[in-house]
Amino acid sequence: MRTVSGLDVHKDSIFMCILDEQGKKTEEKFGVTTREIKRMAVVMHSRFVSDVCMESTGIYWIPLWRLLESDFKLHLVNPQFLKQLPGRKSDVKDAQWIATALLKELVRDSFVPDGNIQRLRQYGRRINEINKDTVRCEQRIDMLLQRCNVRLSNYVSRTRSRSYRKVVDSLIRGETSVDELIRLIHGRTVNRHGKSAVHDALEGCIVESDRDLLGQYTQMLDMYQSQKQQCHEAMVQMCMNLYREAFLFLLGIPGVKELSAAIIISEIGDNMELFATAAALVSWAGLRPRNDESAGKIKSRQITHGNKYLRKALIECAWSAARTRGSVFYCRFWHLKGMKKHHNAIIVAVAREMLTVIWKLLSRHENFDETYHLKKKTAS
Q1: Cα distances (angstroms) measured from residue 194 to each of 155, 165, 189, 200, 291
Q2: pLDDT of res. 79
Q3: Whether the predicted model's global pTM rises above the 0.85 cut
Q4: Tell me: domain 117-233, CATH 1.25.10, correct?
Q5: Which of 111, 145, 154, 201 is a good FRET partner for 18, with 20 to 30 A between their CA atoms?
């Protein structure tokens, strides 16, 4: 007789419902500490539970997965697929419904990678956080300079350029001479906008408190860059040790570099048996146009929701591949450009094609053959 358990997981509590094929139920509430989770496992063992199902609520399911995966067959389900009808909703009834859906085999498991991929994924997610923090810190530096009436960002290409950083470092050291500051600006920038315009942009009013805050922000920037480099090196080292073959396959694709290849592996792994087809992987990544049609009218063709971290990495690779002359993705980009498609839609199409190629390479365990794909595109 099959016995299953449904868990309704919250930040500070877990509601458990054990259900067997005869309809016998056992319900209990537990805490979220390790001791409580282990006690819950003992209770489930005593009731001969074989399968455990839970919703993917935030990060609260992760500790349970780590502690229970060695003892039970776990199922992680998208909460959207387990919504109940409105009315008479409670935590206990949620746990009952999860157990019932699992017992009737109405649930569809979400993709949960193994432990190595999860550890690799942590580095990739951390890099994404660092990139956001870096942009925020750069904006604060520029806002501080604007407050001091130093308008250098109006003339340099970007605030993370070398010229910009040299000027900031010089201001922190106490330099006040505009003639000395303008020597730190790249000659191309000075010639493009004129020496007088750049000279006036550097003439501001900076006090000691501004220099102190600029120093703190630049220290934060340096710290972020150091942490990002550490995560980068750790990801590459893990990929070379654990997923060397798949890592080298990805590096052979135009537009894919070390960090992008490591992030792709951290999100989808190297086992493509988890995705039945390339279309399934594309849909999971959220790069597939949605099917929204009613009364014969197409309402939307925007891409669907999916793994935003994988999608972002693929979009960045697509931009790089579209600029790699002679590559199949370069030809694809300009072919769609000739059809008057919007450039953002074209990049999404290139990213979708790149993910399809990645699925084929990892499924067949073969290197990327540029000549083969060019001939195939020409024939089509």
Answers
A1: 10, 20, 8, 10, 53
A2: 84
A3: no
A4: no
A5: 111
